[in-house]
Amino acid sequence: MAAPFNKKKLLKPFKNIFILILTVFIVWMLFFDANSWLIHHELNSEINDLENEKEYYKKEIEKDKKALKKLSTEEGIEKFAREEYYMKRENEEIYIIEYEDSLKVKPNE
Asked: Which parts form a coiled-coil structure per UniProt (predicted)?
């Protein structure tokens, strides 16, 4: 009776010393070397993450520059002070209207 696959046929290429050395070399370079493919893959993904982070911070810097440009004018400072700190001019009344869905409710209530 013949086996479905012959072990001698399967191991025949590994009897050649050059193929055996080449196989060991490839396995070593892919997984165990200091410059292995796995390490390069991890480093490339880290580089991509850092580049994405760099783009995010560039956009944030541009947004902050625009905000600073708005605050450099007299009207911009006044608008910011009125909106954020509820400041007012003399003889002026300010009414703050808060809607129920915009209130911050404590979890105990």
From this structure: 40-74
